[in-house]
């Protein structure tokens, strides 16, 4: 929307400011990494192997991460051509493109907020995964519906 109203300079400055804000936010995050590890004398001994966490050991998590990566990759690829679809194929202005992109972002934010409320009620990992996959399917349906615009 800013490009449609003010040209490219102002949106690029706003974008640069948002990236600087992300860097500042990242520097303000406190974590508990580092420091010394205390070994539990009862858990260590000859023949005791300590192995780190591995993603492939949790089949439910493997499915979730793989599906999420595939959907993000597909939607990300569609985002590349979305500007040409909206601007050239549909003949819309840069402002309309901004409204469409803003509506998508607002939908993601509101959906995430609503899903967080629902996720607190789901105690079973399988149910939580199913709900997450349903949300990903909804995103895919929204992209598919945009392709049906005459």
Note the main attributes of this structure.
150 residues; mainly alpha; globular; MFS transporter
Fold and architecture overview:
There is one protein chain. This protein has a domain at 58-150. The protein is built from five helices and no strands. It has helices at residues 2-6, 9-28, 59-89, 94-119, 125-147. Helix 3 packs parallel to helix 5 (125-147). The model has no long low-confidence stretch (mean pLDDT 81). It comes from Micromonospora sicca. Keywords: Cell membrane, Membrane, Transmembrane, Transmembrane helix, Transport.
Hey, roughly how much beta strand do the residues contain?
under 5%
The stretches of 5 or more residues where confidence is low (pLDDT under 50) are none
- Overall SS class: mainly alpha
User: How many distinct beta strands?
Assistant: 0
What is the CA-based Rg, rounded? 22 Å
Shape estimate: globular
Distance between the termini: 23 Å
Average predicted local confidence, pLDDT: 81
Number of helical runs? 5
User: Sheet with the most strands?
Assistant: none
Helix content: over 70%
User: What is the helix/strand order?
Assistant: HHHHH
Give the helix/strand layout.
Elements (H helix, E strand, L loop, with lengths): L1 H5 L2 H20 L30 H31 L4 H26 L5 H23 L3
Keywords: Cell membrane, Membrane, Transmembrane, Transmembrane helix, Transport
Protein name: MFS transporter
Organism: Micromonospora sicca
């Amino acid at each position: 929307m800013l490009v449609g109203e003010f040209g490219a300079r102002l949106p690029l400055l706003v974008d640069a400011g948002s990236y600087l804000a992300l860097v500042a936010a990242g520097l303000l995050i406190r974590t508990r990494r580092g420091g010394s590890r205390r070994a539990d004398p009862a858990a260590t001994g000859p023949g005791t192997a300590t192995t780190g966490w591995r993603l492939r050991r949790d089949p439910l998590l493997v499915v979730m991460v793989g599906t999420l990566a595939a959907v993000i990759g597909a939607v990300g690829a569609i985002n590349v051509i979305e500007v040409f679809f909206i601007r050239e194929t549909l003949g819309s202005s840069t402002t309309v493109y901004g409204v469409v992109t803003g509506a998508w972002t607002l939908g993601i934010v509101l959906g995430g907020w609503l899903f967080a409320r629902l996720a607190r009620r789901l105690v079973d990992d399988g149910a939580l995964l199913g709900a997450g996959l349903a949300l990903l399917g909804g995103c895919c349906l929204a992209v598919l519906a945009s392709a049906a615009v005459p």
